[in-house]
Amino acid sequence: MVTPDLRRAVPRTDALLADPRLAEAAQRLGAPVVKRVVREAQQRCRDGELAPHEVAEAAVAALPAASTSLHRVVNATGVVVHTNLGRAPLSPAAREALDVAAGTVDVELDLVTGRRGRRGAAALQALLDQVPEAQDALVVNNNAAALLLTALALAPGREILVSRGELVEIGDGFRIPALIEASGARLREVGTTNRTHLHDFADAVTERTAFVLKVHPSNFLVTGFTAAPSIAELATLGLPVVADIGSGLLAPHPRLPDEPDARTALREGADLVTASGDKLLGGPQAGLLLGTGELVQRLRRHPSARAFRVDKLTLAALEATLRGPQTPVAAALAADAADLRARAEDLAARIRADSRTPSDALLSVVACRSAVGGGGAPGVEFDSAGLALPEAAAALLRQPGPRLVPGSESPLVPVLGRVESGRTVLDVRTVTREDEAAFVATVAWALRELAR
Ligand SMILES: *Cc1c(COP(=O)(O)O)cnc(C)c1O
């Protein structure tokens, strides 16, 4: 029951909006966002949940941290490239580049001559410096766009040969065969699911064949009685060979021996390589095209190329990823189990100190296994270390209550782990250095909640 007295006591909107903290938030986040949290706090007062003098404080506490409804989260799943968590987290260098590019920048201007400059030249050069086997490069919106542009530019009204073992569904219901055929080109499937031979391709070549496509099965394994011609063999057919390597490794990775890379594919005879920027390369969403000068030029000149063009933010982040220090993805792949164990022990000690509760029964350091994820290297797992908590911790960690715990420096951030064998495991391999403070604060908060 709301008494008339209480209704009168609810602080007025204009008085609340004059609170310096809410006024500052209106500048930063926009007035509608602040008005909404004020209205909600007033309603809680009317409902008797808050005393009138608590309304301003509650509105401040309910302010979102940023004007995007995306939430920063900590990836403790142990899946290095996690599609649901935005694939690759960017390096500090790439984030800084994004900040620069967010304003007005010389993306198509030569500051020395004052004339128009070539868009994205620095990012393309960074790519070519790392892949000297490529004569030219082009960057588009994602790998799907790279494939579609390739089909549009190189195979209009013609045929593309592909092995039946490589008709891949990428995820979310999208299939490479359907994507390619959306260009109007015809996909001609050869061989069988498990075995395709060079002669299957050779038998299918006609004057209508535009190119041969080799797609890396990046999210599944075909094992047992299998065969597929190599790029080097396909190159003997006398047709252009386009290799979709998927993950975006530019050079061989010592820990991922079966994952294809751009340099090797080109050296073996691929004329064009397509890949994603935000998988194992560890950069922004992008589609990389690397290959012969002639083919890349045909793609660049195709009218649809403009529709696949990347923005200045992508160019900036990609260049910084390529030129900058080790990416978080590379660091996660490189970490060895003994170092991860030491890091898990260190994080556990910090969490115990921070939680200020007897938490030994609730928190332990355990061995676990990490995966590369949707980004590539299907079936590959690494020994890792993590923190084990009760199963009930998973939901708390996903939605930590207050944004800022009194007395704690770090805001609480949703921490995503995995539930296995009745406990929540937080794999430290995928927790970046930048995430550590928020990770410690949030897990400590969850332990306090569980101990109550
Ligand atoms: C991931 C993937 C794609 C799709 O790449 P996007 O950058 O997500 O468009 C295409 N082909 C292969 C082999 C892949 O692994």
Question: Would you kindly provide a written description of the structure presented here, covering whatever features stand out?
Answer:
It is a single chain. With 452 residues, the chain is α/β, with parallel strands linked by helices. The protein is built from 18 helices and 16 strands. The chain has helices at residues 4-9, 13-17, 20-29, 31-46, 55-61, 92-101, 121-130, 143-154, 176-181, 198-204, 231-234, 262-268, 293-301, 312-323, 328-334, 337-355, 393-398, 436-451, and strands at 74-75, 79-81, 136-140, 159-163, 169-171, 174-175, 186-190, 209-215, 241-246, 272-276, 287-291, 364-373, 381-390, 415-416, 418-420, 423-427. It has a seven-stranded mixed beta sheet, with helices on both faces. The protein has a five-stranded mixed beta sheet with strand order 2-12-13-16-15. The longest helix has 19 residues, at 337-355. The radius of gyration is 27 Å and the shape is globular. 42% of the residues are buried. Bound molecules: pyridoxal-5'-phosphate (PLP). Pyridoxal-5'-phosphate (PLP) is lined by residues 142-144, 168, 170, 215-216, 218, 244, 246, 276, 287.
